[in-house]
Every structure is written in structure tokens, then in C-alpha cells.
Amino acid sequence: MNRIIFTQVPELGRSNVRVKDPVHVENALKTMMKDAQHKLQVIADFDWTLSKCTEDGKTCSTTHSVLGESKHMPEYYRTETRRLKDIYMPIEFDPTKTVEEKIPKMIEWYSKNHELLVTCHLTKQLITTMVRESRARLRDGCKEFFDQLHNMEIPLLLFSAGMGDIIKETIQQQATFYPENMKIVANFFKFDDTDKMVGFSGDLIHTFNKNENSVHSGDYFSNIRHRENLLLMGDSLGDLGMAKGADNVQCSLKIGFLNFQVDKNLDLYMQNFDIVIIEDESLDVLNGLVRAILGH
Fold it and tell me: Is 140 annotated in the active site?
């Protein structure tokens, strides 16, 4: 496939990268390169999209498992969250079930987990410590990705069904969180005057309702309506709904990270994402795309 996209973004030619329709990707990239940073926005999932799925052969922590795997959490919490994960995670990634079938089970899972957390006496300081001691890892190249977007004032919406406080803490510890251009929509803890966690603020966000959350009825997307070019990145089909509120987008590229069960899920990912990145713990492809768009 001797096309311009593989010259402009050589990372797309790697053996673990699949491009569904090279003509579409090339046309989208040409439009984005012409408009450069002026019309670009980025929407990204966090767990196993911006963060690593594995490192050194071991599974990395999601925002939920930062808590579940921590020695600072009560044993009953770790035991119960493992039990819930064994029940509900296979449902989340079951390609034979529809999203409509999965949603009630996701609400059950997240609600049970949140109710359990309130009993665990979390504090802000403890969260900082647990993130530092965890196996949560940003993908290689994530700091460069954040820095590039910040330097060019490109808005980055981090949309996650995970724990917002842990996302922010992970970014602050391993890269830089830039409030000027970065916004996190996730499940955030509510703290009392003593910095003790007493519940959650806002609506419950799970894997399959990212297209219903309050960000879509707020002013985020209306404030960036001139940004008609979108890079969207996620690791599950539920992430495709993150851009529902971005109704002024004219040109988009959807990038999917396929982290496991490749043989089982590749066809489905190829049907839904423009670019599929298979078992790769870096952001090399995204950084290549952004460099090409910005003319770097």
C-alpha cells in the first residue's frame, strides 16, 4: 500500500496496525493537515487506551484496580471487587451480546463497586499514595502526546467510566496535567471538609453510556464548534459514543486499541474503527498522526 499516509505517518505501516480504508484515512489526514491545529480536537478514553494494558508480561492497573489491588484497602473490598470483576468483565467484552443487553449489567457492576467504596474511608492523601504504589502506567509516548496538544492549544477530552481522581493523579505523577486544554469527564469522588471520601459527584458513567453523560448537554462541545476535525481513541466499542455531542465534526479518525482476544475481536474492531492498533503499549501511532497534522 504505497499511499501518502504511510509516508506521512510511517507508524501506520507497522505489522500490528490495521487501516480499514486507506483512501478514507488519507483524505481525512489531508484535511487535518491543511487545517493543522486550528480545527483539531481530541477525545480519548483512559483505561487501557491512554494507560497501558500490560507491562513486562503483567496486567497493568485500571483506575478501579488501583484501588482493588492496594494493600491500603480493606481485604473485604479486594475480595468483593475481584468477585464482581469475574462476573461482569466477561459480559463487557462479550462480542455476542448487544450493547443494550450489556447496559443493565454494567450499571449493576459500577453501582455495587461505588457503594462498596464509600465504606472504605478513602482520603485524598491515600489516593495519591495508592496511585504511586500501583501498576497504573501511562502508555509510552503519553507525555509527548499531552505536551504536543498543550503547546498547540488543542482541546483534549478524557472521557472515562473509571475514577476521575485517579486519572488526574496518574497523569500528574507520570506526565503533566494541563487544565488549560484538558478536561476529564469520569466518576469523581465527593470529599468532606476533612478530605475523606463520602460518595460520588454527578451521574454514574459506565462503559456504554458515554454518549449520554452531561458533557453532551453542557457547553464543552458548543465552545469548540469551530474544531471540525476529530481524533477519537478508545479500546472498546462503547468508546465510539464519546463524540456524540461533537455534532459539528466534519472530519474524523477513530482509532481503536485492541489489547487482547485479537482473533475473536479483530473483525468487529475493523468494522467500527478506522485504524486498529493491536497489542501495542505505546502512543506511537497517535503521536505520528499528531506530528503529521501539525506539520512537525
Answer: no
